[in-house]
Design a protein that fits this description.
single chain; mainly alpha; two-stranded antiparallel sheet; 3 helices; flat
């Protein structure tokens, strides 16, 4: 099975993408943005070709280290989880407010 053809982008498609994503790309930057967009698509296309090779398992790590088995285990006891919490209340971590309500 061959790789699917790489999509190409023109100014009309860029303008449509900008409209859909509510971005404003000045006309003088369109050529630069089109080049960047094409490089991003090419990179993803290359990744797709790598992951479909016969010698590469879908979940293999590039460094060859095997992944740990995905096994369900019992959760830690609540007391152990909360042991290092700076503050706690009602069996929960207490953290400073970071967003005004």
């Amino acid at each position: 099975m061959g790789a699917s053809p790489e999509p190409t982008f023109d100014r009309a498609m860029l303008r449509q993408l900008c409209e859909l994503s509510r971005l404003n790309v000045p006309a003088e930057l369109e050529v630069e943005v089109l080049g960047r967009l094409q490089r991003v698509v090419s990179a993803f296309q290359a990744l797709g070709e790598l992951s479909s090779g016969p010698d590469l398992a879908p979940t293999a790590r590039p460094d060859g280290v095997p992944l740990r088995p995905d096994e369900a285990v019992a959760p830690l006891p609540l007391a152990t989880v909360l042991a290092n919490a700076p503050k706690q209340a009602a069996d929960c971590f207490l953290v400073p407010r970071v967003v005004d309500a």
